[in-house]
């Protein structure tokens, strides 16, 4: 049986491909995706948002009589302290209560609340239109992107950008909060494992039970900072490898400079550079995914990550 797959964000860091259509926004990207055997479709998703995708998929499903699927990419932030998620215990991605937990979450950050709402809307609308939905969650992803587009990630990049601008590595959290991590290859293999299972016609947990965190485990932010600070000091990007707290009101000038370096509102600096997330990956292993890299690998890879980011910034 043949399937059609539409991938959005194909030019991004996490973009993957198969037998597919790829959403692009420029002629150059269209040429690039053709080299991967994909047919480019050019449009802007701000115009055709998730709800429209799902509604249209629902029509495809009822006309063809075949199962249709929608895989939404979210992020671990949506399951963290920043998003009002519980952090006093491991939050398992196969917890049958996760949908209700997400429904009850309240975030003081509008953008994060919108991302929480997006997950809930995808699940609800998909259910309504007979579409099977999956919420795929990357976390701190590291390693070189293998696609034709963006080669570098998000959170490790924010650490380097802030350090470069301030010539020092600052931490913005009290205590020792941790966050799940994942090598880009493992992130991709979970995505592909989900696709493989769906295409094989298997009844993969979906809808309210369809959350998939791509992570081999968590690390403490400060350990990541320390490893990256050593790599940054070695390259004279920062004066020395010490990680300095920037937490209170007396540090507001420092936080203002970090804000400027990251190009985000001041209250979003801790969202970009820290926070606590106890989201824990179980679902992936249940569908046969086995990550290759343990969480500590990000610390060993910090030197290469810094090199990669500095080369691509
Ligand atoms: N990388 C991580 O560590 C990480 C962690 C957690 C969650 N995530 C989430 O995963 C998703 C993908 O991340 P990424 O690292 O691959 O991001 P990225 O490198 O910035 O790529 C974003 C992709 O989305 C496309 N895009 C953005 N706005 C669009 C629009 N309005 N219409 C059509 N296409 C649009 C971009 O196309 P152009 O090339 O044309 O701009 C690009 O292909 C994001 O939602 C991100 O928040 C990523």
From TrEMBL:
<dbReference type="GO" id="GO:0004029">
    <property type="term" value="F:aldehyde dehydrogenase (NAD+) activity"/>
</dbReference>
<dbReference type="GO" id="GO:0005737">
    <property type="term" value="C:cytoplasm"/>
</dbReference>
<dbReference type="InterPro" id="IPR051783">
    <property type="entry name" value="NAD(P)-dependent_oxidoreduct"/>
</dbReference>
<dbReference type="InterPro" id="IPR036291">
    <property type="entry name" value="NAD(P)-bd_dom_sf"/>
</dbReference>
<protein>
    <submittedName>
        <fullName>Putative nad dependent epimerase dehydratase family protein</fullName>
    </submittedName>
</protein>
């Amino acid at each position: 049986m043949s399937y059609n797959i539409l991938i959005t964000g194909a030019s991004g860091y996490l973009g993957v491909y198969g037998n597919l259509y790829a959403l692009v926004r420029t002629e150059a990207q269209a040429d690039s995706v053709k080299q991967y055997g994909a047919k480019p479709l050019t449009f802007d998703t701000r115009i055709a948002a998730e709800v429209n995708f799902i509604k249209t998929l629902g029509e495809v499903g009822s006309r063809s009589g075949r199962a249709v699927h929608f895989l939404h990419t979210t992020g671990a932030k949506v399951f963290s302290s920043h998003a009002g998620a519980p952090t006093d215990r491991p939050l398992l991605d196969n917890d049958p209560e996760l949908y209700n937990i997400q429904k009850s979450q309240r975030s003081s950050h509008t953008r994060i609340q919108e991302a929480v709402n997006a997950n809930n809307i995808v699940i609800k609308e998909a259910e309504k239109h007979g579409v099977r939905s999956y919420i795929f969650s990357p976390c701190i992803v590291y390693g070189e992107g293998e696609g034709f587009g963006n080669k570098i990630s998000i959170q490790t990049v924010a650490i380097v950008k802030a350090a470069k601008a301030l010539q020092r590595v600052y931490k913005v959290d009290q205590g020792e909060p941790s966050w799940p991590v994942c090598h880009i290859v493992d992130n991709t293999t979970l995505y592909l494992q989900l696709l493989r299972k769906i295409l094989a016609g298997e009844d993969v947990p979906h809808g309210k039970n369809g959350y998939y965190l791509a992570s081999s485990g968590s690390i403490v932010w400060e350990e990541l900072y320390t490893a990256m600070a050593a790599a940054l000091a070695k390259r004279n990007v920062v004066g020395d490898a010490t990680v300095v707290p920037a937490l209170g009101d007396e540090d507001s000038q420092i936080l203002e400079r970090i804000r400027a370096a990251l190009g985000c509102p001041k209250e979003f600096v801790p969202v970009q550079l820290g926070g606590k997330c106890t989201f824990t990956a179980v679902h992936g292993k249940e569908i046969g995914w086995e990550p290759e890299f343990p969480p500590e690998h990000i610390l060993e890879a910090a030197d290469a990550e810094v090199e990669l980011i500095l080369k691509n910034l």
